[in-house]
Amino acid sequence: MRGVAEQIDIRIGSEPKASAAVVRDALGVGVAVGLSGFAFGVTSAGAGLSIAQSCALSLLVFTGASQFALVGALAAGGNPLTAAAGAFFLGVRNAFYGLRLSGLLGLPRPVRPLAAHWVIDETSAVALAQPDRRTARLGFTVTGLSLYVLWNLTTLAGAVGANALGDTAAWGLDAAGPAVFLALLAPMLRGTVERAAAGLGVLLVLGCLPLLPAGVPVLVAALAAPAVLAAQGLRARRATGEGGVR
């Protein structure tokens, strides 16, 4: 009985330390990524969107890569529908995150629609890295709250500042959006498959730019992922077949 009691005391004492570590990590992610909202606000203003439109995108869409893709296509003169379609395809990945997080977090049904708005790369990464449901919920909530608040505040600051400066291209701020977009994308390119898909996507965009209207090359580049996955599957089947013959 004494040994069991000591183990319980150790677990109870370790919970505050574990919670503090989760909060620290979650705030670090939220602050680091949230500051990128400034670049989005500048880019959005440079694309011709008003301050209200820029803020509405961050409040209602809240998925950085999709937002940058949308305003980038608009800035290039793309059709709003094709720009929105490209942003939509980028945002589809969040639905797959949601499937995984639904079982992990086990949130009450009334809360799920609100929590779904915070299902993005960063909140998913922090939540999935936790060892149990309690810390996963804590990491998801702290990351989502800090990132959402800071992203929207910096979007407002960036849009207001860009409007005050005037022509963002004259200050070189038009490059801020693409630079941050690449910074958000880079951590995802960890494996050979991801890098191959990114490389093929770049080639498709460059090949289609002179031929297709602005915004459409981004949609064509979305074909890179299924193409690379199909090639990988074919290669795996061939390797399996050769192994079976031997």
UniProtKB/TrEMBL annotation:
<dbReference type="Pfam" id="PF03591">
    <property type="entry name" value="AzlC"/>
</dbReference>
<comment type="similarity">
    <text>Belongs to the AzlC family.</text>
</comment>
<keyword id="KW-1003">Cell membrane</keyword>
<feature type="transmembrane region" description="Helical">
    <location>
        <begin position="138"/>
        <end position="162"/>
    </location>
</feature>
<keyword id="KW-0813">Transport</keyword>
<feature type="transmembrane region" description="Helical">
    <location>
        <begin position="168"/>
        <end position="189"/>
    </location>
</feature>
<keyword id="KW-0472">Membrane</keyword>
<protein>
    <submittedName>
        <fullName>AzlC family ABC transporter permease</fullName>
    </submittedName>
</protein>
<dbReference type="InterPro" id="IPR011606">
    <property type="entry name" value="Brnchd-chn_aa_trnsp_permease"/>
</dbReference>
<feature type="transmembrane region" description="Helical">
    <location>
        <begin position="26"/>
        <end position="49"/>
    </location>
</feature>
<keyword id="KW-0812">Transmembrane</keyword>
<keyword id="KW-1133">Transmembrane helix</keyword>
